[in-house]
Amino acid sequence: MIEIKQVSKLYEGKEAIRNVTLAIGKGTIFGLLGSNGAGKTTLLKMLSGNLIQDSGEVLIDRLHVFENREVKNRCFFLPDTPYFLANYTILQMALFYSGVYRKWNEERFYQLQEIFPIPLQYKIHKLSKGMQRQVAFWLALATMPEVLILDEPFDGLDPVMRKNVRQLLVQDVAERDMTILISSHNLREIEDLADHVGILHNGKLVIQKDLADLKADVHKVQIAFKHKIPHGIYRGIQILDKQRQGSVIVCIVKGKEPSIKAHFNQFQPDIFDMLPLTLEEIFIYEMGDIGYVIQNTLA
Ligand SMILES: Nc1ncnc2c1ncn2[C@@H]1O[C@H](COP(=O)(O)OP(=O)(O)OP(=O)(O)O)[C@@H](O)[C@H]1O
């Protein structure tokens, strides 16, 4: 169980993380979203025990994380630029990790070679960016972490490798209850993987929700009227965006499906449709709702 309690972090007097509270249960895949500079990396670094918060508590299984060897041994942090020891080959790096991580699994390391077919004697720094990323996942998964912290992890991986890695991650969550905290700007990837999401904005956690609940809370509505648009159709509901496409009005509406249906049906539209939103659309509209550059294109 990961607990972040009223955590704040300042850089040069400026708050990068503001009073964030978050609990993530074991076996959860938590997707951390946010605009550039929102504080995602800062939060992940504190959670991996590499950066100390200025106030609040960061706990894994009730133990403080910062510089706590015992806790850090059960976690693996894969930063946005993977780090390897200078000039090391894959095998040398594996040997190094086997001495550091108590749960290092030699058999799994060799099994994973089927997925990551890179010769063990290759020097890691000479590999391409995507291949280095593969090595990082390969080594990370062989340490059998209880908590895997991933910062923009799919950068540089080709589509086939992305799928392979996604499968490996889901398998570890299903089989041994691994917890994953993943930050990414690739919302499709998060949508495929995560069961919970949080959105950071200006250092504040503005949303944290079960992904299914989040999707059940925002809808795309298409309506059309033969004649004039009745007065008051936008009153009493929370519209995040509205656009006109010919005679059809497309609205993004916050709220539960039955109440949105009931609201529009009282105006007897000639066309009425409700469509699901992707996570990417939800993110854009939620961010718009909190004032992050989005324009309402209908006067
Ligand atoms: N070492 C540092 N010194 C000073 N300020 C920093 C430092 N690291 C980050 N910041 C600032 O803290 C804020 C949050 O940065 P952070 O890297 O956590 O954001 P992020 O959400 O990961 O961004 P991105 O999506 O662009 O990678 C930014 O305003 C950034 O400029």
Automatic annotation (TrEMBL):
One of its GO terms (molecular function) is ATP binding. Transmembrane segments: none annotated. The keyword Lipid metabolism does not apply. It holds the Pfam family ABC_tran. Residues 2-227 form the ABC transporter domain. Keywords: ATP-binding, Nucleotide-binding, Transport. It comes from the Bacteria. This is ABC transporter.
